[in-house]
Amino acid sequence: MTSGAIRELVSGGKQRMGVLEAIRTRRSIGKVAAKRPPREAIEEIIEAATWAPNHRLTEPWRFFVLAGDARREFGEVMAARRREEGDAEAAAKTAAKPLRAPVVIAVAVEPVVGPKVVEIEEVTAGAAAVQNMLLAAHALGLGAIWRTGAPTYDPAVKAFFGLGPSAHLLGFVYLGYPDTIVPQRARRPVAEVTRWLGWTEVGNGGDEAVVTPIRATDV
Ligand SMILES: Cc1cc2nc3c(=O)[nH]c(=O)nc-3n(C[C@H](O)[C@H](O)[C@H](O)COP(=O)(O)O)c2cc1C
Question: Structural domain tally of the chain?
Fold first, then answer.
């Protein structure tokens, strides 16, 4: 099924959304309907994740799709620590968390170990993959939010997914049909967060710079 067909299936939308528009208009949406989006849409979202940049092509990301009763089981695993601590109220609250959306995708990174592989780069590649997921969901007309919290860093939660101690859980992407007005959020202006170094205006913005030639095979 093509992306256009999936978008139409999900949201009835025929209109394509440009990348810049998707980036600007995407918002974290936590309130979604109970109806589960089609599997094709979830596959499209995960495929978008796998196109994220990753150094040395390690593709360190792993995805775990939770739907139906698997969300309940996962909720219990997340709540186990609270239950052990004797906090029944907090445990019940935590256990119910994955039920806030019909689909929850846990995203993890299993860093490749190698002489040239830098672990933080494996994690940052995973973060890029999650952003691709959020953008793909938005472009398809779905609501999504990246959630973390203490269970993200709980070894028992990692073990539930069969992940070893060296893996990093990056969080959980909650997905569904939006059931809320898209929240308004602001960002600091570019000028406030950017320093320009060596940028001189000579022509009309398309000035030539010295670049070192590289071979087509260099990455
Ligand atoms: C690593 C990470 C963890 C996050 N964890 C949570 C979370 O646990 N709960 C939550 O409501 N939002 C979480 N968010 C979403 C942020 O709250 C949200 O991106 C921020 O408020 C900006 O809103 P926007 O995404 O609509 O622009 C997380 C975002 C990131 C990048």
Answer: 1
